[in-house]
Amino acid sequence: MSTTAARKPSKAAPAADYLDQRTGIGKAVREFARKVFPDHWSFLLGEVALYSFIVLVLSGFFLTMFFVPSMGHVTYPEDALPEAMQNVGMSEAFASTLRISFEVRGGLLMRQIHHWAALLFVASIVAHMLRVFFTGAFRKPRELNWLIGFTLMILALLAGFSGYSLPDDVLSGNGLRIADGVARAIPIIGSYASLALFGGEFPGTDIVPRLFTIHILVVPGLIIALVTVHLILVVVHKHTQYPGPGKTEKNVVGYPVLPVYAAKAGGFFFIVFGFLALLGGLVSINPVWIHGPYDPSPVGAGAQPDWYMLFLEGALRLMPGFAEFTIFGYVLSLNVLIPGVVVPGILFTALALWPFLEAAATKDRGEHHVLDRPRNAPVRTGVGVAIVTAFMVLNVAGANDLIATHFELSLNGITWFLRIALFVAPVFAFWLTKRICLSLQRRDRELALHGHETGRIVRMPTGEFLEVHQPLTQEERWLLVHHEADRMLEIDPPEDENGVRRPGYGKDKQLQRLSRFLYEDRVEPVDPAELAAAHAEHGGHGNGTHGEVEEGGLHAAFDRPEQQDRAAIGAGRGTDGRNTTTSS
């Protein structure tokens, strides 16, 4: 006979009950704890961004206590490290950066962790958005969340640029000089914008304090607010999931938040933090003492910003310098305006509005919680690859001087090659990606109808040679069959039955053209009738709905392997006993 001791109440129970009675937080905690999240590695990209931001906040809090956001002029002491900066005139911002690096205990480690976390933060946001784009996770009801994620990416770029400019060294000063030039290139308001930003003529004395306020207060506050809204919407809309058996638009297959997912997420945070700590401790980044304080005169090769701003540098380098005109007394600097404002504006605007363009081209009003396979949306996938290709070309252009010096190539030759590639490479990438996606769709049809080729050829008693095909698993068949192909938009005729021109026909015609571009080239998925017909053609004896066949004990009736093969062909099975279809 066994006895069970009464469970003692937790010491935290009274405090939890006190808080629940006054805030009602218990209901929210219970609801959140029951939420189910799918278990797939690509969903961790958003978590990497969140954890990188947490590391940014923690390390930034440390750095804020020692950084002096002032452009006041000082002379670096004679007895301070590094020796190369002794008795050198510099701003207080640069001097405090040196003191953090060489005098504050753990200061250099924190600086480098902070910088690496910023790079990883932007990279994980971009990777997360690409995953959402290629899988169609932006569709209804998540259009608003897509815009929030897009805004977070812009804020991440702003946070990175403002933080990169704070040390007031040569590289960051050159970056601010470029930003001043881009601002001044904007017609009419450009010069006023520059004066307002820098508090006078460049560089002025106010830019570092203003960037400091933006970097530690404005941008982090907006990011925290938008991340909170983003996560709330994820819970409200429920999580998307990849297609598979048992996964529908009305359920989520995965693990609950408590205890499984919370434990995984907590462990993953420490993995990200440890990775950033290793980078900060072992890989040097942004050694400002090598470049020295900002001076507008020294500008040499190898002066590149961080990777997420390199596309803007590359666009400016590729643009010819002759496109400058004077109109009504205003100087229109197209050589700066086009690469600095127009090109990024077009790329970012197209990315932000894509969910709404797709919705308008299909007039789809249904909710989508099961993700697309990128191959099943060939134009969307091609456009995404084209945009990534354009950014890659611009990033390479931002390092054209390094390529020229390291590989002893002509700088002008590299620049002209990249100018041509900026127009040719994205188009070629779109075409190639689209053709690959359509080819993969055709391959999926063949697999769904005939199964996997085994390379085993057998001879029937009639003298006919057939190949044994291995059937698909339930999960494979689900991926290949259970999706709907988007079709071109059908519109009403331009005139009604009375010959009166229908209002709104012009808009519908434009949407139909967009729909034709998106969905004209497609491969229809296999339907149950086709599966049944293919199965009957191959001599199957199953139900015909999904190409399945009934198992039998036919292997036991034969002794020799070749007889087993023939029996398997006749019964629609492979020699290993699994269901197959056959193809002549």
TrEMBL record:
GO terms for molecular function: metal ion binding; oxidoreductase activity; quinol-cytochrome-c reductase activity. InterPro entries: Cyt_b/b6_C, Cyt_b/b6_C_sf, Cyt_b/b6_N, Cytb/b6-like_sf, Di-haem_cyt_TM. Residues 547-565 have a biased composition (Basic and acidic residues). It comes from the Bacteria. This is Cytochrome bc1 complex cytochrome b subunit. Keywords: Cell membrane, Electron transport, Heme, Iron, Membrane, Metal-binding, Respiratory chain, Translocase, Transmembrane, Transmembrane helix, Transport. One of its GO terms (biological process) is respiratory electron transport chain. Residues 532-584 are annotated as: Disordered. It is a multi-pass membrane protein. Its main location: membrane. It is found in: Cell membrane. The chain crosses the membrane at residues 44-68, 113-134, 146-166, 212-236, 268-290, 327-357, 377-396, 416-433. SUPFAM superfamilies: a domain/subunit of cytochrome bc1 complex (Ubiquinol-cytochrome c reductase), Transmembrane di-heme cytochromes. Coiled coil: none annotated. Its cofactor is heme. GO terms for cellular component: plasma membrane. It catalyses: a quinol + 2 Fe(III)-[cytochrome c](out) = a quinone + 2 Fe(II)-[cytochrome c](out) + 2 H(+)(out). Residues 244-439 form the Cytochrome b/b6 C-terminal region profile domain. The keyword ATP-binding does not apply. The keyword Lipid metabolism does not apply.
